[in-house]
Design a protein that fits this description.
CATH architecture of the largest domain: Alpha-Beta Barrel
Helix content: 25-40%
CATH topology of the largest domain: TIM Barrel
Distance between the termini: 22 Å
Shape: globular
Number of strands: 16
Mean pLDDT: 92
Bound molecules: iron/sulfur cluster
Radius of gyration: 23 Å
Oligomer: single chain
Number of domains: 2
Length: 484
């Protein structure tokens, strides 16, 4: 059960919060497979699953291969309308028996809880990530937060077992203040972890856009008061329910900017495929504007126009490359082009993580690199900012290069090599730029598929252990009270 939040807003916060409107939204969500099993889905949605698909999924119910025990099913009316015309979007959102054929994978990818000094806050790098909600408007089958969304028990470092909890404002603010005071008193670095000021926070989940505006506003204001310089909000709502970015939301975000003009705000959006925001004709081809650029879906366009009109706000897209969804050069190329044209940066594409059942979703690492590399050949320099990242337990790692030729005299390089580069070590910024070179393995889905062909590893990707016995910097909150 959520703990009561004892946070008391300042006068500035309260004045901002008093301006916020909280409309109700009707996403027309279909929750779970039962409406399809019991023939209770809206008439036009009933055929989303064929009778054979329904029979197969029903036969797994209650067994170890129950697809909803792994990841709950959820879809909005908006996404259904898009997906009925797109096999790729159907793959993203429709449950399939294939998902549970092989349940190998990690119950807590990246050992996220090792970085949680207080419940719901992961303190990595010089930034924090918070779980503020545990669901989204619809659910991607490949979600790498399936343990949070499925409310699964996770084993922590100390051996205890519990579901992941959500962040509470009072606890997070107390932690941020305590960490930053220690850093400040110690000449700019934390004496134990060597990390600098915690200056950036990502609101995540789940999708924070499921929270009412008032709750989002409360987080934005409290983090600003705590000294956070830049706030990100991660969302896939532009794909699932773009109507959420309405005048009330835009007014809230404008008023936030007015109250805290020095705090940066960045929307990290998540489009996987151009079918999620581009308009298609009856022949299945994308429609064009008179100048030849691709036409946006009116709902996504309206939302995007409202967001990009706020020049002080940055918007960036990041998405994994997933089997059957977007492992396609043309789709990835069109997406980068169409997003950049309207003012959205292309941040990362990701290799799939080692979630439970990852073999159903992940594209081989070298294939993903090739898709992104090929897709960028037809783009301009500014359209090609995205890198391919794979999240090692150590931190964000780039798949920097894949070569085809052997390196003379170097064993394991006969078929070429792959170079990983650490972008950010979750616990120690000083590792940035270190590389690991492995012999190629075109079938590799995860790091361990290269274990037998490591050539050079200054990054330490292959001697990583779960060394600490408690979350780093638990002492940052020692002696502070929960409320500030
Ligand atoms: S939007 Fe993100 S968090 Fe939500 S289900 Fe999809 S991948 Fe998971």
């Amino acid at each position: 059960m959520a703990k009561p939040d004892n946070y008391v807003p300042t006068a500035t916060e309260q004045a901002f919060l008093d301006t916020v409107e909280n409309p109700r939204y009707d996403r027309q969500i279909i929750n779970g497979l039962n409406p399809f099993f019991e023939d209770k889905a809206p008439e036009d949605m009933k055929s989303f699953y064929t009778p054979d698909e329904i029979a197969d999924l029903m036969s797994l119910r209650g067994t170890e291969r129950d697809v909803e025990a792994r990841m709950p099913v959820k879809i909005t009316r908006h996404y259904f309308d898009l997906a009925k015309k797109s096999a790729y979007l159907q793959k993203l959102v429709k449950a399939s028996p294939d998902e549970t054929l092989n349940l190998a994978g990690s119950e807590d990818p990246g050992y996220q809880m090792d970085f949680a000094p207080v419940e719901g806050l992961l303190h990595k790098y010089e930034m924090g990530l918070m779980y503020v909600v545990s669901t989204c408007s619809a659910h991607c089958r490949f979600c790498y937060r399936e343990e949070l969304i499925g409310r699964k028990d996770i084993e922590r470092q100390d051996g205890s077992v519990a579901k992941k909890g959500l962040a509470q404002i009072d606890e997070v603010v107390a932690y941020v203040r305590a960490h930053n005071e220690i850093v400040e008193a110690n000449g700019g670095v934390h004496p134990e972890s060597g990390r600098e000021k915690l200056r950036e926070i990502l609101l995540s989940g789940g999708d924070p856009m499921l929270l009412p505006n008032g709750k989002i506003a409360a987080w934005l204001a409290a983090l600003s008061e705590a000294g956070i310089e830049s706030i990100r909000l991660g969302t896939k709502e532009l794909a699932f329910y773009p109507q959420r970015f309405d005048d009330a939301f835009l007014a809230m975000i404008d008023n936030f900017h007015q109250a805290y003009p020095d705090v940066g705000f960045r929307l990290m959006i998540h489009f996987n495929h151009p079918d999620e925001f581009l308009l298609k004709g009856a022949d299945g081809e994308y429609l064009k504007n008179p100048n030849g650029s691709l036409k946006w879906h009116p709902d996504a366009k309206k939302a995007m126009d409202g967001l990009t009109a706020r020049g002080w706000m940055n918007i960036e897209n990041q998405a994994p490359i997933i089997k059957g969804v977007n492992d396609d050069v043309r789709a990835i190329q069109l997406m980068q082009r169409a997003l950049y044209r309207v003012g959205v940066g292309n941040h990362y594409f990701f290799c799939g993580r080692d979630i439970v059942a990852y073999q159903a979703f992940n594209v081989p690492i070298e294939t993903a690199w090739n898709i992104l590399n090929e897709s960028q050949k037809g783009l301009s320099g500014v359209e090609t900012h995205a890198r391919l990242s794979i999240t090692h337990y150590k931190g964000k790692t780039e798949v920097a290069a894949v070569t085809n030729e052997p390196i003379p005299g170097v064993p394991e390089s006969e078929n070429g090599v792959l170079i990983f580069k650490i972008l950010r070590n979750a616990a120690d910024a000083r590792d940035r730029g270190k590389v690991c070179i492995v012999g190629r393995n075109p079938e590799a889905l995860w790091f361990d598929d290269y274990e037998d062909r490591v050539i050079y590893d200054e990054a330490g990707l292959y001697d990583y252990g779960r060394l600490r016995t408690k979350p780093i910097e638990t002492q940052a909150t020692a002696g502070t009270t929960a409320s500030t």
